[in-house]
Design brief:
Layout: H1 2-19, E1 33-34, H2 37-40, E2 49-51, E3 72-74, E4 95-97, E5 118-120, E6 141-143
Parallel strand pairs: 1-2, 2-3, 3-4, 4-5, 5-6
């Protein structure tokens, strides 16, 4: 009987222990890729990589300009129709991916992104490009496939 009681206490204790929600301290390194803008906003100055792809966004969150050290921004596979002029405030941006949206125009402020190396606008609705795109002297990759482009700067 004592043995059964001990086994029962052990099982009850084990169940209670495993039933508790686990608390895990989440730490972010310099190279963490944030996929939730609300969490990223808690680390504004530390965020270098923001991936908001496939989140069915209709507008670029206005808070996007609050990340002064952002290097990569992935807004692909959403429902965006406009890329805001505030994109030009992301002066450390090196990679911008807005593939598979419905963007019709690239804002002229894109020319302020002097560190931009990779620009992906594949599968949007671009008919022309702003002349300011010529100011991006560090561009290594430009992907404009799948756009009905008819005029280049």
């Amino acid at each position: 009987m004592k043995k059964q009681l001990l086994v029962c206490i052990f099982l009850c204790f084990s169940f209670a222990l495993f039933a508790q929600p686990s608390v895990v301290a989440q730490t972010y390194s310099e190279e963490s890729i944030f996929t939730d803008i609300n969490i990223a906003l808690q680390y504004k100055g530390q965020v270098k990589h923001l991936n908001l792809s496939g989140q069915k966004l209709k507008k670029v969150p206005k808070e996007i300009s609050e990340f002064p050290n952002l290097k990569t921004l992935d807004l692909s596979r959403n429902k965006l129709t406009v890329l805001p002029a505030d994109i030009g405030l992301l002066l450390k941006l090196e990679e911008l991916n807005v593939t598979s949206n419905k963007i019709e125009e690239i804002p002229k402020e894109i020319g302020k992104l002097s560190r931009l190396r990779i620009l992906k606008f594949r599968n949007n609705k671009l008919y022309d490009l702003p002349k300011e795109i010529g100011e991006l002297g560090r561009l290594e990759v430009v992907d404009l496939n799948g756009n009905p482009l008819w005029r280049l700067p």
